[in-house]
Specification:
Blueprint: H1 11-14, H2 16-35, H3 44-50, E1 59-60, H4 62-71, H5 76-94, E2 106-107, H6 131-141, E3 148-150, H7 151-160, H8 167-184, E4 190-192, H9 193-200, H10 203-211
Antiparallel strand pairs: 1-2, 3-4
Amino acid sequence: MAAAGQRRPSLRAAAPVPLLLLMIVVSFVSQAAAAGGAPAWTTELQQHVAYFDTDNDGIVTYSETEAGLRRIGLGAVAATAAATLINGVIGPKTRPDNATTSRMDIYIENIQKGIHGSDTGSYDAQGRFVQAKFDEIFVKYAKAEPNALSGTELEEMRHANRGSNDYSGWAASKAEWDMLYSLAKDKDGFLQKDTARAVYDGSLFVTLAQKNGGSSGGN
């Protein structure tokens, strides 16, 4: 009981304190939940690779790459061979010094270290998409159709981009463009510009997987 002459605390004045605490707790819980979700990758190259990261841990294992390639339409043998090449080459380049996982694991945060030569330059050194370089592909090589490339035009583009003695870059560029063309060309044998653009941020993978009745992958 309050002593005589003392004012009893106002319930109305005291109410905001627990309400404020409740708001802080709710905000903290919401932020913690968001932190536990999929990483927010900022470059198009990171987004491209993140499709294969089905458990959203920031690492793409050999098995995730192989399964992802099968989802988008590669056969078992081709997916196994491609995953072995992709993870075997890129994994060690993106691996942090203190990593304890397989050397074939690809670390998405370092994926820009896996960029190869003899390509179009549509990714910059940080893995960001360069629209002008992408547009240049079609300005230079799309002759039969203004916004599409035939298989022959793709081959011409690849040969023009070859760096001197960059044999690994030649092989990587050929493997990438041949795979894209085989999976995404239209019924007339053309790779449409919009389709090619969608591969850079990985959104094409989702489309191909859905077309083949598979899941949408990571993210």
